[in-house]
């Protein structure tokens, strides 16, 4: 299978009044064409920063001191603004976490959708209008005709996300980045939206980079997973080995937050402690203060690199979890 996206050693910092926020500190992972790759981690881990870096849409306060982002064999960090604009219109699209802000505030929803359909297909305006209505209905929108006549600010965040997703579907992107596309939606709608994303991946062979903090979404969607903690990928592998034999203690604790069907009485364990202050990152493993598997080496050595523990299964840990022991 061909590679769709490969990120190597990506570093991103933000200049802020409190100091440099080291949001990404050597993020690496790769994803194949047609795959659904889930990037999972807690709030502030750097998930949206990865997405914005791929899109070439980091804010002006951001700097990228190191790293590469290969799409189609080309390093996007070396692409010109024009090339990036072209890619965003034709090959890579994104559903933003803050979808409301990403839509045009002074244009009605209907014309925004129709414009994209007309620009990317050969249909007449009347057909474009019907397609837009059908797409909103498919996204589970009640009264699509009424919604077409509204401005984005009068709609909920969840509705705006579904409109963005509808726009992304028309574009038939080779890579779709969906940043928490179902947060804030009820479970039925969540299932419906996730099914639409699966369809896009299956029918158009689109690659999906799906960002979530929910291991349940990962379990139902991912082919491959990257677990991100304090701006680094601490574990990445195909989905089944990650769930069956998690290697990193952080992945292990994320899995413990999931309800178990086979152990209905097991308690859900929230992860104790907090992620580190991203302006004062330690030299050693950033998970150390929360880790119940830490050994002396974890305190003495610099942070562990991402290493191949099993074929295709990488983790950054000096004392990985051994299945069945913990
Ligand atoms: N524009 C910015 N200026 C300064 N710091 C920022 C900026 N954007 C993000 N950060 C910081 O960078 C780190 C990573 O943020 P990011 O938004 O990528 O996290 P996330 O994993 O997407 O979190 P969430 O799940 O809450 O969306 C956080 O510490 C955040 O506060
Ligand atoms: Mg985010």
Give your account of this protein's structure.
This protein has 326 residues and is of the alpha/beta class. It has a domain at 3-91 and 173-235: P-loop containing nucleotide triphosphate hydrolases (Rossmann fold, 3-Layer(aba) Sandwich). The protein has twelve helices and twelve strands. The protein has helices at 47-55, 81-90, 99-102, 109-120, 125-138, 144-148, 157-171, 187-204, 215-221, 239-244, 249-256, 296-300, and strands spanning 3-16, 19-32, 36-40, 62-71, 74-75, 92-95, 175-179, 207-212, 224-229, 232-238, 307-310, 313-315. Strands 6-7-8-3-9-10-12-11 form an eight-stranded mixed beta sheet, sandwiched between helices. A four-stranded antiparallel beta sheet has the order 2-1-4-5, with helices on one face. Strand 9 and strand 10 form a beta hairpin. The longest helix is centred in the middle third of the chain and has 18 residues, at 187-204. The model has no long low-confidence stretch (mean pLDDT 91). Bound molecules: adenosine-5'-triphosphate (ATP) and magnesium ion (MG).
Give the N-to-C terminal Cα separation. Answer: 35 Å
Overall 3D shape: globular
CATH architecture heading of the domain at 3-91 and 173-235: 3-Layer(aba) Sandwich
CATH third-level topology of the domain at 3-91 and 173-235: Rossmann fold
SSE succession: EEEHEEHEHHHHHEHEHEEHHHEE
Helix content: 25-40%
Average pLDDT figure: 91
Bound molecules: adenosine-5'-triphosphate, magnesium ion
How many beta-strand segments?
12
CATH superfamily of the domain at 3-91 and 173-235: P-loop containing nucleotide triphosphate hydrolases
Highest CATH level, the class of the domain at 3-91 and 173-235: Alpha Beta
Strand order of the largest sheet: 6-7-8-3-9-10-12-11
Structural class: alpha/beta
The helix count comes to 12
């Amino acid at each position: 299978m061909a590679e769709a996206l490969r990120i190597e050693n990506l570093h991103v910092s933000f200049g802020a009044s409190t100091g440099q926020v080291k949001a990404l500190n050597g993020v690496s992972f790769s994803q194949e064409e047609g795959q659904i790759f889930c990037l999972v981690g807690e709030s502030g881990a750097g998930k949206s920063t990865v997405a914005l870096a791929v899109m070439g849409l980091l804010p002006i306060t951001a700097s990228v001191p190191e790293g590469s982002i290969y799409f189609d064999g080309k390093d996007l960090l070396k692409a010109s603004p024009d090339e990036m604009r072209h890619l965003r219109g034709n090959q890579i699209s994104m559903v933003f976490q803050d979808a409301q802000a990403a839509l045009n505030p002074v244009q009605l929803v209907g014309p925004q959708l129709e414009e994209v359909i007309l620009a990317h297909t050969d249909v007449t305006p009347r057909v474009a209008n019907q397609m837009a209505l059908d797409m909103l209905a498919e996204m589970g929108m009640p009264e699509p005709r009424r919604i077409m006549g509204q401005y984005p600010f009068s709609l909920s965040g969840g509705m705006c996300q579904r409109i963005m997703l509808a726009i992304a579907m028309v574009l038939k992107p080779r890579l779709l980045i969906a940043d928490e596309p179902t947060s804030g939606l009820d479970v039925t709608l969540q299932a419906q939206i996730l099914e639409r994303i699966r369809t896009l991946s299956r029918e158009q062979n689109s690659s999906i980079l799906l960002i979530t903090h929910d291991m349940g979404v990962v379990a139902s969607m991912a082919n491959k997973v990257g677990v991100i903690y304090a701006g680094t990928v601490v574990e990445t592998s195909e989905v089944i080995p990650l769930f069956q034999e998690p290697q990193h203690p952080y992945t292990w604790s994320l899995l413990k937050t999931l309800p178990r069907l086979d152990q209905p009485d097991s308690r859900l364990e929230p992860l104790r402690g907090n992620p580190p202050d991203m302006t004062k990152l330690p030299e050693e493993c950033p998970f150390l203060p929360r880790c119940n598997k830490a050994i002396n080496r974890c305190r003495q050595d610099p942070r562990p690199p991402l290493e191949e523990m099993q074929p295709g299964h990488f983790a950054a840990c000096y004392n990985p979890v051994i299945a069945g022991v913990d």
